[in-house]
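Morning, I've got a small favour to ask if you have a moment. Here's the protein in full, and shout if anything looks odd to you:
***
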Amino acid sequence: MKHTFKALILAAGLGTRLRPITNTIPKCLISVAGTPLLGRWLFELESLGCQSALINTHYLAEQVESFANKWQNSKMFIHTIHEPKLLGTAGTLLTNQKFFKGSTGLLMHADNATNADLRGLLKAHQDRPSCCLLTMLTFQSTNPSSCGIVTTDKNGIVTSFHEKVKDPPGNRANGAMYLFESEFLEWLNKEVPYASDFSTEVLPKLIGRIQTWHTTSPYLDIGTEESLANSQELIKPVKISNSLQ
């Protein structure tokens, strides 16, 4: 069964750790297994039943907008929103919250890549405990000190969050992919209406109210040359029409 929802894809980053590669191409358009990251996500979202995707842009925005325009014949409506000044992960969500009116929302980063079957994430969110405002994807990190690490109770609900600390308590990492409903946006506006960073300003206030869905499939942040190289070996190709690449 496919679930309809809307997605905000964060694609505005500078990609400084991937220079000189990102001197001329935005990180979200770097190819992994033969397909630009953003293209992989647009294809995945459409296959999951996403109705509409909003992509924020900043660095080399014209390239991102041009790429998005190639998907205009998609069944999924795609729109870009330019940020002259970066708003931050939470700031972008707050600024564009009306986009999600009446829909399940997905907040995600374009610079991640995975083989995970995300139908499981959607199903987990549908079946989440009533106390939870977010459903977070988690994965097993091989370098936990570089990630946001979570601990959970026996039901998979987050009990603590450790953002890029030395010697974190485990290797279950936050995949920075979140599903939510209107209740979460209401909470966000009430509790942290001026937040900029999602990991440091929002998540710590939601301990006990975040459900996790864990994947054992490769899940990589394509933020360094090493992770980019690893992704070419671990991430599977996707079959996308040549007209959409």
User: Anything to note?
Assistant: Residues 5-244 form a domain with the Spore Coat Polysaccharide Biosynthesis Protein SpsA; Chain A fold (CATH 3.90.550.10). The two ends are 27 Å apart (CA to CA).
